[in-house]
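Table 4 source record.
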Amino acid sequence: MNQRPTEKSPKKDEGTTDWKAREQELDTHSAAATRDRVYKPAPSSYHESFAKFGMSLPKLSSSSHPPGPLSPEGEALRDLQKKDAFGGLQARARHSRLVSELKDLRRKVVADPKVAEGTKADMLSAIKNRLESAGKQHRDALQRSPEGFMAAHVADLRTYRRQYDRGRIIQTPYVEEKKAEILQGLQGSRMCFISGETGTGKTEVARIVAREFNGREEIVVRGYAGMGASELYGHMTLTDSSEQRMQQAVKDIEVAEKVYKEKFPQATPEELAKVAQGVLSRDGVTTTEYILGAVYRAAKEGRVCIIDEANYIPPELLASLNDILTKKAGEKINVQQDGVGPITVQEGFGIIFTGNVNPPVGPLAKRYTGRRDFDAAFTDRVPNVSYERLPQAVQGQPKDYELADKQLFAIALTTALLPSVPASETVEKLESRYGTLFLPGGAEKGLDTLWRFAQFAAVTQMAFHGEVNDGEAHGFRSGAATVGYVPKVQLSNRGVMRVIEQWRQDGCERELDYYIAKDIFSRATDPKDRAYLYQKGQFFGFFKSNGWEENPNYSPDSISRFNVTIPDNAAEPSGIVPAREVIEKLYGDVPARTQWPDGVQTEEQKQQATMVEHLALQSQFMQWKASHPEIEILSQEYRGAKTAS
């Protein structure tokens, strides 16, 4: 029986240590730990339930050949991994704090009326430059070790997952950028209008910004065509006041007892008590009270009021907000109700409007029926932030793009991410912090499926937003012609999450194609929309397995009746997608290790380090040479003289 070595330091003959083999040893342990978690045996409480149907619980041996104990070199390398992973998390935390503090400073500068405009511009430029340099420093810090890179970026992905679990919008770089714009509007004028297409997450991001603005819960009211002033400002209502009811009851008891005594002069205390009980059993006294509406209440309590679908609201009602929109903290709002005193606006008050806006011309000009144009007074007072679809590349592979260009893919990965569970101190936990997926097709096909799904969803959004024109690759192909098409449905950000959620909830029983088709075809009532979406799905490799219509007729006559049968195909067996592959697809290549325990290097590693150092010196020389053009002139003269001789 093998015993775990007690020695924790590398062998004395360190120059002969094969550290690549030690890394492989740790990879083996990590893979076994991941498999142990994913294939953990089912609880014994299911035994009777399975036996009822003549089944027995699967006896899964997650590691039929579990790895042996780590060698001393493996222990030393694992200690270095732990140190580097912790360093990556520390660098991430420092960067997050710095960025948060710089953004707070930026908001303070923007909102400060005492700072001259020219000075303010210089201050904001300095803050912008510092943010950019902080980002570069953070990226450089994560390149120092593979574990630091992995730990920091898995933490980023887990943060996305927590946002998803809370039911909020996943705050990708685009969302963060728009949050900053909305906050800037609130800081400067206490209001903002978020415009954009349906399904982008306008209301969700408004809720997040509202809470970040003042730390208080937002008040939300939804606009509609027949909306009245009472919902924004307030209304009278009937109410039961316990205090007034008791005061009136005492008076009624006194009157009732007096009347009873006049009629029955010899009344006993017991009889009078029954009289009092009769009075108390009556209904309470009804009074009226003024209930503050959403806007007045937000102003009084220092909260943000979100007016959703604002351009549904009648223009005259929106115009009545003009005076309130100019009020600042400490100023008073005169309530339009007799007997109700003015409201003092509290710090933290703001209004965020959201709405779907029709463009003045083009195929989308009448998409959102019932929406009204804002008047000049509104648009002059309220900053507008355009909140559109997430950036997502629709060509190539994940490795070809930065995170900023594959944000729908980030949402797909986040939705598919395995849950985080408490675990013992394992190599897997140290390396990945559970950035693992478990998908049909495993590492070989699982990520590719999600990437193609993100691309497909992005194209449906592009078309829905009217961004696909005649002759372009993602137009509607019918015969020899390819024309721009604007479907009435899309796979929005919420749609991407919805499809993957359903897939996971069904245990990935069927291929993803089934859930995509069920979602979009159930909402696409127009046969032409179904035809276009089916064609684009096939373009990205979906709807091509057994049972799908391989070559539908997309001629004008046929698409008016377009329909397909959705086959119930089983998905491929599921497999583990290691965290390293997930992170590389989203954040780029994990850096190679440059340091080893106690500075030991193999000959190959020494040669690699020498080459890296040589290239760095060569780069420095070229930069110095570029900044001294006289050197090149002298060099050319020398070469010319040498050739002549």
